[in-house]
């Protein structure tokens, strides 16, 4: 007992006191370049990231400053590029040397670290190996297997958000001509709560600000995102705000270093001083899931202090009475209990908000990935609308998207809920009709596979089985498939869950030259702020046998749809033709080919940015959500609310390494962050091995959802809140634990209990 009181050292756990960025960030880039063994190739690639004539960084969806002239340093962008431009190769020899069952034993890190896939491969059940196959043979067999299904609705077509607009548009065209709207999408696991809630509130499912607005705002609120790790280039913007004296208010259960201090490698003064520039003026460590309480508290203060913009409310909105009634009916005692913060702190935040004329609210997964994700988004929109902070310069809502083109994929038609307008436009341009019915999102797709209602899965990128909740159910379901097709750059665990027929189709990455009959091609992407721009790689492809994503889609389409109305070969010979098609189907892309050739690209129309709330006569809406989400939270004796987060050394399911520098974790990921008092109360101490047991209903086999043998780390977060890494925590979430309105899984508020590990 005594030894414990003197704070024993937990291996790999050491408080990190530096700022985000700084020298360690430079060191980390040098290490990843060395480790990936192709310094020349990668360093050349790095100079072209996010330059007007280069490729779009596959790291995140934060926009680029227009006309970038010098290399904008970003540690995690550099890792993403190095990981793609690596010198390592996963050739057919790797698959000859290892059965799929053997590869299954590898870590997620080791699988991807094998390097770039080089040849199309097909699974051979007899030898339990992937064997090389010709492209045409692969396409033929895939087309045949899909056509053999009793109904097109028995196939699922997943998209991960790195896919370009051009590939995504062709993909949805193929799938719709085939006859289904089953479009599970990584967006369903990410910002779906935004895509559902914002149209209801402000008439459009996208953010309303651009980078220019950040230069004009006079207060910024950051809810539930971790820019230091997940969109590091945003730190440069936040640093500028801080130096301008703009208050930045962080609302986050975990103290994230990037929201506290940042040393910009571009600014010697930051680097020499050692401590960098302060970012957040105030840091509110809200309880996990306590944001609606925090937001309602702020709004309650605004109401009580007559700090509303009455003229804006009268002219532009509906529903204010119901909102006021709800705020009146919400007692401060409940707000304090649910948010875990004292009334005075919430009122102080409201005062900062009320003093400012132009406010931006930014948010990420800490708001969307809950069973009440859409409610969270509604209340942030309400807060902004109360003072007219949408649709004027320097103000607005900024959902920070994840994958670099997750927003664009949606814009060009990846949606399971097509409209009649889309059907009409496709009919006009391509001559075929498709059913305007609702298909499956990500959770529904896996449920359909589980229940035997779907028998084929095609994945345009990603690692669906690992990204989704409930690996027990998801893995078992996917093993029952007749067909699994993965278009990918690197090997991952989803590829090893084999179906009766499984194919691995290796594609070009963003960094590489894409040469077609019409010459070298560029693709386009849309960032978090609706800016569309070109992306063109310059590196020699990782293997001569790779195909571009559009070419792979066209190859499958030809085999799948022998009587297709679409001339697939013609389209992929020159991507301008695909963009012409996008423009024909989606009029907001007017003059697409011309506008995308302007340096920096162009911005798509976002109605709410100019106070068009969804057409003539439409108004923005205050939306009341019931209570403080007590109805959707499991509480009880000893229950902790667990959130799952990204470490600094991963990209979603891609594990670059084992360092979570800013949180003081080195060389491991098997940790759970818990408040020291919560540990003590349970008779546990930092360094103890613990099991985490989900309080959600048992899995389908009747087994308890749990993960075992993790190490407890005492961490500064609110009582009752805990955190661990994703995907390790996914086994604790059931497939049906999702937001009813949007389907977004509840990855960020999992009710759990912890106990000393039972195996000692
Ligand atoms: N390097 C790198 N970059 C990435 C990614 C990556 O994995 N690595 N992933 C990309 C993708 S797809 C996405 S979607 C984005 C994700 O970017 P983020 O949204 O930053 O993702 P998370 O790591 O999930 O971090 C969520 C944050 O929310 C906080 N949080 C958790 N629960 C709550 C809550 O209840 N309330 C509040 N207020 N906060 C909470 C956590 O403490 C954490 O700081 O990043 C993209 N960029
Ligand atoms: N518990 C928990 N679970 C989560 C989350 C969480 O916060 N907590 N976050 C969720 C979120 S926000 C998201 S977006 C999903 C991510 O879900 P996904 O998008 O499905 O997963 P990724 O890990 O990004 O996919 C990695 C794979 O993409 C492939 N890849 C990389 N680049 C390319 C390319 O250019 N083309 C093609 N075709 N393939 C490529 C590689 O083969 C790599 O193995 O995970 C979700 N899951
Ligand atoms: Mo995401």
From TrEMBL:
GO terms for biological process: cellular respiration. Pfam families: Molybdopterin (PF00384), Molydop_binding (PF01568). GO terms for molecular function: 4 iron, 4 sulfur cluster binding; formate dehydrogenase (NAD+) activity; molybdenum ion binding; molybdopterin cofactor binding. Residues 640-750 form the Molybdopterin dinucleotide-binding domain. Residues 116-486 form the Molybdopterin oxidoreductase domain. Keywords: 4Fe-4S, Iron, Iron-sulfur, Metal-binding, Molybdenum, Oxidoreductase. GO terms for cellular component: membrane; oxidoreductase complex. Its cofactor is [4Fe-4S] cluster; Mo-bis(molybdopterin guanine dinucleotide). InterPro entries: Asp_de-COase-like_dom_sf, MopB_CT_YdeP, MoPterin_dinucl-bd_dom, Mopterin_OxRdtase, Mopterin_OxRdtse_a_bac, Prok_molybdopt-oxidoreductase, YdeP_MopB. The keyword Hydrolase does not apply. Belongs to the prokaryotic molybdopterin-containing oxidoreductase family. This is CbbBc protein. The lineage of its organism: Bacteria, Pseudomonadati, Pseudomonadota, Gammaproteobacteria, Lysobacterales.
């Amino acid at each position: 007992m005594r030894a414990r009181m003197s704070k024993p050292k937990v291996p790999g756990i050491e408080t990190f006191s530096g700022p985000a960025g700084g020298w360690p960030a430079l060191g980390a880039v040098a290490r990843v370049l060395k480790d990936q063994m192709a310094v020349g190739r990668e360093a050349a690639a790095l100079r072209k990231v996010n330059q007007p004539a280069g490729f779009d960084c596959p790291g995140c969806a934060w926009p680029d400053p227009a006309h970038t002239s010098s290399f904008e340093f970003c540690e995690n962008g550099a890792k993403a590029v190095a990981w793609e431009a690596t010198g390592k190769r996963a050739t057919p020899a790797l698959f000859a040397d290892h059965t799929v069952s053997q590869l299954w034993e590898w870590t997620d890190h080791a699988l991807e670290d094998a390097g770039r896939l080089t040849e199309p491969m097909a699974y051979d059940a007899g030898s339990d190996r992937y064997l090389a196959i010709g492209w045409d043979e692969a396409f033929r067999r895939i087309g045949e297997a899909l056509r053999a299904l009793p109904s097109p609705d028995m196939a699922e077509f997943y998209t991960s958000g790195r896919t370009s607009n051009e590939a995504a548009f062709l993909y949805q065209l193929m799938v719709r001509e085939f006859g289904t709207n089953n479009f599970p999408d990584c967006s369903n696991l990410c910002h779906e709560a935004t895509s559902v809630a914002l149209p209801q509130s402000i008439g459009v499912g996208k953010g309303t600000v651009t980078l220019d607005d950040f230069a004009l705002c006079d207060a910024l609120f950051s809810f539930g995102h971790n820019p230091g790790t997940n969109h590091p280039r945003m730190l440069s913007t936040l640093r500028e705000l801080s130096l301008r004296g703009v208050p930045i208010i962080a609302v986050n259960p975990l103290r994230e270093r990037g929201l506290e201090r940042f040393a910009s490698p571009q600014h010697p003064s930051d680097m020499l001083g050692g401590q960098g520039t302060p970012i957040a003026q105030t840091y509110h460590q809200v309880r996990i899931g306590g944001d609606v309480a925090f937001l309602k508290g702020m709004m309650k203060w605004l109401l009580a202090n007559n700090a509303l913009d009455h003229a804006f409310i009268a002219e532009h909105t509906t529903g204010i009475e119901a909102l006021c009634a709800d705020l009146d009916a919400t007692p401060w005692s409940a707000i304090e209990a649910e948010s875990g913060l004292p009334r005075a702190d919430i009122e102080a935040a409201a005062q900062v908000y009320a003093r400012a004329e132009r406010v931006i609210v930014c948010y990420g997964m800490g708001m969307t990935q809950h069973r009440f994700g859409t409610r969270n988004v509604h209340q942030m929109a309400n807060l902004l609308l109360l003072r007219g902070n949408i649709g004027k310069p320097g103000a607005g809502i900024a959902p920070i998207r994840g994958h670099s083109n997750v927003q664009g994929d949606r814009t060009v038609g990846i949606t399971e809920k097509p409209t009649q307008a889309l059907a009409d436009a496709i009919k006009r341009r391509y001559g075929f009709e498709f059913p305007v019915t609702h298909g499956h999102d990500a959770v529904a797709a896996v449920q359909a596979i589980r229940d035997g209602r779907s028998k084929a899965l095609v994945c345009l990128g990603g690692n669906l089985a690992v990204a989704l909740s409930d690996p027990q159910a998801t893995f078992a379901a996917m093993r029952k498939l007749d067909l699994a097709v993965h278009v990918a750059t690197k090997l991952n665990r989803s590829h090893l869950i084999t179906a009766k027929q499984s194919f691995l189709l290796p594609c070009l990455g963003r960094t590489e030259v894409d040469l077609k009959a019409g010459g070298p091609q560029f693709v386009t992407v849309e960032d978090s702020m609706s800016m569309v721009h070109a992306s063109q790689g310059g590196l020699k492809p990782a293997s001569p046998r790779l195909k571009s994503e559009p070419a792979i889609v066209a190859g499958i389409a030809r085999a799948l749809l022998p009587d297709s109305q679409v001339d697939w070969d013609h389209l992929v010979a020159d991507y301008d033709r695909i963009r012409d098609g996008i423009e024909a189907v989606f009029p907001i892309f007017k003059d697409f080919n011309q506008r995308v050739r302007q340096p920096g690209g162009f911005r798509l129309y976002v109605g709410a940015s100019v106070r068009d709330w969804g057409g003539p006569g439409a108004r923005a809406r205050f939306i009341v959500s019931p209570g403080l989400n007590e109805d959707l939270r499991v509480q009880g004796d000893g229950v902790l609310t667990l959130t799952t987060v990204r470490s600094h050394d991963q990209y979603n399911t891609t594990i670059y390494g084992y360092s979570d520098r800013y949180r003081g974790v080195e060389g491991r990921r098997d940790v759970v962050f818990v408040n020291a008092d919560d540990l003590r109360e349970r008779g546990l101490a930092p360094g103890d091995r613990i099991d985490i047991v989900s309080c959600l209903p048992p899995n389908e086999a009747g087994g308890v959802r749990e993960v075992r043998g993790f190490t407890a780390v005492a961490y500064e977060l609110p009582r009752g809140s805990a955190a661990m890494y994703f995907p390790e925590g996914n086994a604790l979430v059931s497939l049906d634990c999702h937001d009813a309105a949007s389907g977004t899984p509840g990855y960020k508020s999992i009710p759990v209990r912890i106990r000393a590990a039972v195996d000692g």
